[in-house]
Specification:
The chain has 11 helices and 8 strands. With 256 residues, it is of the alpha+beta class. The strands form 2 sheets. A 6-stranded antiparallel β-sheet has the order 5-4-3-8-7-6, sandwiched between helices. The chain has a two-stranded antiparallel sheet with strand order 1-2. The chain starts with 5 loop residues before the first helix and ends with a helix.
């Protein structure tokens, strides 16, 4: 059995100390209370501040328990912020590819569509934009399930078959999610809507966690080649878009 990691133990001790303290503590107080060298305590505190588990007062330099810990039960990423940071990349992607583009995040066992740009022809036909999508039958959902295994446990026990191609066997779905992680993107070829296909890539947030996904959606004959594989230019476009939104979120975090 592997031994305990001392730095993790020390970080946990700092969090407990600050959580039980009735006031903010100075570096020297943290160091003395836990019998740590000041340099070690400072390094741990700096790291804990960077991940949001500890807050440091700008004026006094003292430390207190962080809002990142207090908010662990709330959604990791604000929906409005994700939507705002997606505008500059999703809309141009839709114009460049001529296809619909959606951004989604996992909420209450479903994919919540945060932002969607319809294909011009769909607008003329009056096609509606769904508010939520199933996790197991869409490219967006597969990305969010693949990189956040806890989401998989939120799915209903019996998976709904939307088409003949929908994956409803959990073992088969697990294998599909392994492929998503291996390739870095997910596809849905007629699994949710007949004759429709999509390809999605992960959007990363703080610490590398996948907090959302972006997908290109359209008729299968336009999204895929004759072999049934997604057209390479679309893979390039969706990956670049996901990386650009990820970078936007990193900038926002750095400014705070």
């Amino acid at each position: 059995m592997p031994g305990l990691i001392q730095s993790v133990e020390r970080a946990a001790a700092i969090v407990r100390l600050l959580a039980t303290s009735p006031r903010r503590l100075r570096l020297a107080e943290v160091s003395a209370a836990l019998q740590l060298p000041k340099a070690t305590a400072h390094g741990l505190l700096t790291t804990l501040v960077s991940v949001g588990f500890v807050d440091q007062d700008r004026h006094s330099g003292r430390y207190q328990i962080g809002t990142g810990l207090l908010d662990l039960n709330s959604p990791y990423l604000d929906v409005n912020e994700l939507r705002a940071r997606s505008f500059n990349w999703v809309d141009p992607l839709a114009a460049r590819t001529g296809e619909a583009v959606r951004v989604g995040m996992f909420v209450d066992a479903e994919v919540y569509v945060v932002h969607s740009v319809l294909r011009p022809g769909d607008l003329l036909r009056g096609a509606g934009v769904p508010t939520t999508l199933p996790g197991h039958a869409t490219a967006l959902g597969k990305v969010l399930l693949a990189y956040n295994p806890t989401n998989l446990h939120l799915l209903p026990e019996r998976l709904v078959a939307y088409t003949a191609r929908t994956i409803v066997d959990r073992r088969q779905l697990s294998g599909e999610l392994d492929r998503v992680r291996a390739h870095g993107y997910a596809t849905d070829i007629g699994e949710h809507v007949p004759e429709q296909a999509s390809v999605a890539a992960p959007i990363h947030g703080f610490g590398g966690l996948v907090v959302a996904a972006v997908a290109i959606q359209g008729d299968t004959e336009r999204i895929c080649e004759g072999t049934g594989r997604v057209r390479p230019p679309l893979l390039t476009h969706i990956t670049a878009c996901a990386q650009a939104i990820t970078h936007e979120l990193e900038i926002v975090r750095a400014e705070r």
